[in-house]
Amino acid sequence: MNFCSNTNNALFFSSVDEISDEIWRNLDCENNVYFHPSFLKAIEKNHPKIIFSYIVLVDKDKNPIAFSSIQIVDFNIDAIKNDIEILIRKVKSIGRKLHIIPNNKPLKLLICGNTFVSGEHGVFIKQDQDKKVLIKELAKAILHFVNADKKLKIDAFLLKDFRNESLLITDELKDFNYHPFSVEPNMVLSLDTNWQNFDDYLASMKTKFRVKARKAYKQSAAIKIEDVTQEKVANQLPEMTALYKKVASNADFNLGDFNLETYTSLKENFGENYILKTYWLNDKIVGFISGIINQNSLDAHFVGIDYNLNRTYAIYQRMLYDYIEIAISKKLKTINFGRTASEIKSSVGAEPRDLTMYFRHKKSITNRILKLFLQRIQPTPFQQKFPFKNENNPHEK
């Protein structure tokens, strides 16, 4: 049951099931899979430790004009392992001396966006609306939501993963004391319309990258790759989960642990449009890939890898090429590879697309301190590769 009273221009829901079919029809947002109720419900029902809420903004005639997905998670800042760790340690040290950051206690973090997928998937605004006005209305609605239930005890707010072209709109959040900072870019491969098959893709590459690809295929020749059907998911989940946890433990940080049971719901709801493949060696699963077809894009989701075998069998490299082969065969336009492992993704042709997050601590003193540190955060640099023949890079032959 919803615990937040509605306002004149905002409706609040604590489950996807509470949102009527009429609202979904008026929003007309289901063409984007991340705003499809079946996708949202699959995430919601398989993550009981996360508090899910949804905000629908309405106009003066009560017609739905915008939608936002909210998740509240317990985020342990001690788990951060990347380059911002030193900054976080300084913030923690100062904050704990001032008694504004609790000791040995996770932050209660409100996230607007998708906790488990990188990209601009938290806010949908209808085309004919003033987006600057509505992003402000969303900020007000989030504050109303938090203030309506003191039991939530939210420490901080994070609106995540906005593309550069959205910043003119989202910078309105600065008026609400949100601080922007850059995060690892989304790595995107734009598919050439001339690529009719994977051989065409290889033919477009410079020699050393084509040799690298053929070597990866040779190394991985012993691996058998299987499509995971809806009927097979349950039996393979234990092994897949173990492999996913190995990858997650190596990540710089995770906002939450993904429950792979979600794949059962996603396969049931999206069928062949949800990609799930397992990699087998000697009758044992040594890896898996997942992803979804969203409009004209293939979005890579989580992978699992047996790191002990990865170098010998080029498992991860092969996975990247398999994503490409799938996208070409389905005549898609782009592949969103997501964050992490930027350099190896660039070696298969992906290019970085900058992403910005907005952060705000509920306590004003802490928020002012955080602003100084967030301004210094920059994505981890990596060496961008240029694998295609028509790319002009003076440093690479």
Automatic annotation (TrEMBL):
Key words, A-Z: Transferase
Pfam families the UniProt entry points to: FemAB_like
SUPFAM superfamilies: Acyl-CoA N-acyltransferases (Nat) (SSF55729)
Molecular function per GO: transferase activity
Gene3D superfamilies registered for this protein in UniProt: 3.40.630.30
Protein name as annotated: GNAT family N-acetyltransferase
Keyword Nucleus: no
InterPro entries: Acyl_CoA_acyltransferase (IPR016181), FemAB-like (IPR007434)
Biological source species: Polaribacter glomeratus
Keyword Transferase listed: yes
